[in-house]
């Protein structure tokens, strides 16, 4: 077959490139930039994001004496609970472990029992007591051994929250400890969980166990990407009209 045949000339000649208008070209470039960012890891947010709140479940009944609380699990106690004898009864306190670590408290320096959803943050009632301790509950036995009485804001607390402020590497963080306390016949106190906000100075809600999560719908809305993309990058960037242009180019090249 001669080299200068029609088929040979067609294969040897370079394919003409169709020009795309500047507006479409910009859209394509913008979408390709988004695609590159996705490859770099931005679209990792399509799965649940890393929680900003670290929650630790627990089921610990406080023993007689001192029980430490390491709220951020770094091996260093941030607070201490004290349950011990006091005259003809017993008392429950939460103690200050570090000068910067404080408990959400009342005007009388009792540890305030907080309900679920209470805001724990910079505007909270964190006041230091000169004794470095905040009273929670007490129980005392009558002189005759027959009657007894209980007192304190935590004397009958069911799944109630203790607001906490503590320092990590010189930065202030907020957290909570959930407790159930019964002071009817002595004091029985159980720690059922605790959590803290990993971002310094950011408030946390009592009972909050996770931070905000970015989902795929939010990501699509921010980047103006269709929920069900189809076709090529050009279609995603500029719509169905671009698909028609690309199809005409492909037809012309066959």
Uncertain ranges = 1-12, 31-49, 213-254
Report the principal-axis shape.
Answer: elongated
Main structural class: alpha+beta
Biggest sheet details: 6 strands, antiparallel
Mean pLDDT: 73
Strand content: 25-35%
Topology order in helix (H) and strand (E) letters: HHEEEEEEEEEEEEEHHH
Head-to-tail CA distance between termini? 21 Å
Number of helices: 5
Report the count of strand segments.
13
> How many domains in all?
2
Quick gist of this model?
The protein is of the alpha+beta class and 254 residues long. It has 5 helices and 13 strands. It has helices spanning 6-12, 22-40, 216-223, 233-238, 240-253; strands spanning 53-61, 65-69, 79-86, 89-96, 102-103, 113-114, 119-120, 133-141, 148-151, 156-168, 171-182, 188-197, 204-205.
Structural account:
There is one protein chain. With 254 residues, the chain is α+β, with helices and mostly antiparallel strands. It has 2 domains: 153 residues, no CATH class; 33 residues, no CATH class. The protein has 5 helices and 13 strands. It is elongated. It starts with 5 loop residues before the first helix and ends with a helix. The N terminus and C terminus are likely disordered.
Outline the secondary-structure elements.
Elements (H helix, E strand, L loop, with lengths): L5 H7 L9 H19 L12 E9 L3 E5 L9 E8 L2 E8 L5 E2 L9 E2 L4 E2 L12 E9 L6 E4 L4 E13 L2 E12 L5 E10 L6 E2 L10 H8 L9 H6 L1 H14 L1
Antiparallel strand pairs: 1-12, 2-3, 3-4, 4-8, 5-10, 6-10, 7-13, 8-9, 10-11, 11-12
Q: Which descriptors apply to this entry?
A:
single chain, 254 residues, alpha+beta, 2 domains, six-stranded antiparallel β-sheet, 5 helices, 34% strand, elongated, disordered N terminus
């Amino acid at each position: 077959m001669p080299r200068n045949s029609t088929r040979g000339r067609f294969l040897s000649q370079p394919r003409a490139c169709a020009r795309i208008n500047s507006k479409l070209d910009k859209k394509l470039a913008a979408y390709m930039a988004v695609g590159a960012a996705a490859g770099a890891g931005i679209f990792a947010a399509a799965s649940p994001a890393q929680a900003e709140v670290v929650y630790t479940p627990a089921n610990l009944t406080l023993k007689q004496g001192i029980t430490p609380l390491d709220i951020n699990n770094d091996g260093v106690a941030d607070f201490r609970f004290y349950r011990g004898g006091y005259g003809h009864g017993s008392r429950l306190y939460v103690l200050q472990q570090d000068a910067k670590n404080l408990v959400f408290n009342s005007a009388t320096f009792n540890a305030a029992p907080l309900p679920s959803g209470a805001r724990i943050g910079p505007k909270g009632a964190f006041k230091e007591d000169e004794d470095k301790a905040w009273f929670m509950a007490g129980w005392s036995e009558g002189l005759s051994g027959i009657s007894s009485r209980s007192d304190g804001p935590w004397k009958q607390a069911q799944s109630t929250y203790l607001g906490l402020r503590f320092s990590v590497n010189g930065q202030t963080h907020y957290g909570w400890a959930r407790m159930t306390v019964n002071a009817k016949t002595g004091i029985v106190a159980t720690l059922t969980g605790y959590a803290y906000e990993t971002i310094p100075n950011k408030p946390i809600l009592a009972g909050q166990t996770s931070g905000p999560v970015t989902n795929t719908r939010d990501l699509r809305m921010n980047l103006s990407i269709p929920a069900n993309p189809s076709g090529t990058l050009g279609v995603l960037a500029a719509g169905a009209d671009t698909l028609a242009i690309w199809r005409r180019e492909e037809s012309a090249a066959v």
